[in-house]
Fold:
Amino acid sequence: MLRRWAPLVACSLAPLVLLTSGQASAATTFACLSDTGAVQAADKRTHPFHIHSSWVTKAVPRQQARKTWEDWVWRGPIERCSWSAAQNCTYNKSISKTTSYEWSIGLTLGGDAKKEPFTRMASLVGGFGRSSSTSITYTSGTWYKPGQFAQPISVVERRWRSGDFVGAMVRTPTDYCSGKVRSYTYDPNKRWGYWADNIKVRDYGTFHIYW
Structure:
């Protein structure tokens, strides 16, 4: 794994309200939630509750590798230039190939994020679960030396990156809910958990020439 990092500008991705450990300093607006995160009716002795659209959890990139790496998503037929060839060979097949691939691969989660359902966490990381495709036509004209092999390949160039999650529902100092449910309020600055993936930078087609 690459060990040289570059800082990233924080960006906001898909919204989701989640619970984490910690306490809020005040409870002006709160939610009555069960241990599973289910929303309960607010205590009528205070005020009705509804989830605000601004109460979201964001996946924020924090660092990335300086260099990218090649993900070969398709490998075509191999040809070899005979050792006895009088001159260099040229790849003599014409191939049109459409290959599907994922924008984000190798997602890992850590810290508090591992306590939440995987599908909910994965949906926050930009590009994860998104698919695309590349259509490339390989034509003759690629030259290679006697004894060498030539193979068309479709490549997705990727970059490793990592980050954490920001924004969560946290326990209020005092419970404002009745029954067994507890009261939470939203902390937009709560940083928690960890995620890492390999995001697509670009895709292209080329030939792999080797001995």
About this structure: The helical segments are 118-122. Residues 5-210 form one domain. The CA atoms of residues 23 and 171 lie 5 Å apart. The chain has one domain: 5-210.
